[in-house]
UniProtKB/TrEMBL annotation:
Name under which the protein is recorded: Peptide deformylase
Class of the enzyme per the UniProt entry, highest EC level: hydrolase
NCBIfam families with a match to the protein in the record: pept_deformyl (TIGR00079), PRK00150.1-3 (NF001159)
Protein function: Removes the formyl group from the N-terminal Met of newly synthesized proteins. Requires at least a dipeptide for an efficient rate of reaction. N-terminal L-methionine is a prerequisite for activity but the enzyme has broad specificity at other positions.
Single annotated GO MF: metal ion binding
Keywords: Hydrolase, Iron, Metal-binding, Protein biosynthesis
Organism encoding this protein: Tunturiibacter gelidiferens
CDD domains membership: Pep_deformylase
UniProt superkingdom: Bacteria
Length: 207
């Protein structure tokens, strides 16, 4: 069952989600919720979805970056983004640690803000500790695009959206991005946008 994705402006996206209790994690309700989130993510399509995005104020997120989503990127773009397929997995009550500075900047979008993208500086390397759907503790050390996805989704659990971290002058419609910026290298984008006014956030990490 596909679930409606909350849009920017809805309160559920701006409140911190609560941790799940251990007994909740094994419940039928949470397993059904994960199944519904996975269907919704595939239908969107997207690479990550947090429970607040479907109206559930819970510290729960799913991630899956399929190879087919990367088919329209050149080998050079994949290398620059350090992007490769990531299998489906569940994060419950995640804690994230940034292991590098917020010095990797690419355009980023969100299913809760369809049709728009902006350049967002992220850490290249992160460590995440969480529980999976079987209540087992997991630890992930991720680099590149996978690290970006993790940051984006965990931000959602704190009520933070990419627009809070973006370079404001880079905010763009997807159509304009495709026409003017998609083919540009990271160095070219930095040269164009870096000196323009943008908000700087204290980076308590988080998406």
């Amino acid at each position: 069952m596909r679930i409606k994705i909350a849009s920017v402006g809805e309160t559920v996206l701006r409140n911190a989600a609560r941790p799940l209790r251990t007994d909740e994690i094994g419940s039928d309700r949470i397993h059904q919720l994960i199944d519904h989130m996975r269907e919704t993510l595939a239908d969107a399509p997207g690479v990550g979805l947090a429970a607040p995005q479907i109206g559930e104020q819970l510290q729960l997120a799913i991630i899956e970056d399929k190879a087919e989503y990367q088919a329209n990127l050149t080998s050079e773009e994949l290398t620059e983004r350090e992007r490769s397929p990531v299998p489906f997995h569940v994060l419950i009550n995640p804690e994230i640690e940034l292991l590098s500075p917020l010095d990797v900047s690419f355009f980023e979008g969100c299913l809760s803000l369809p049709g728009f993208v902006a350049i967002v500086p992220r850490a290249r390397v992160v460590r995440v500790r969480a529980l999976n759907e079987a209540r087992e503790p997991i630890q992930i050390e991720a680099e590149g695009w996978y690290a970006r996805i993790l940051q984006h989704e965990i931000d959602h659990l704190k009520g933070t959206l990419f627009i809070d971290r973006m370079w404001s002058h880079s905010f763009s419609s997807v159509d304009h991005y495709i026409r003017h910026w998609k083919s540009k290298s990271s160095a070219e984008l930095l040269k164009h946008f870096h000196t323009r006014n943008r908000p700087e956030l204290d980076a308590e990490p988080h998406l």
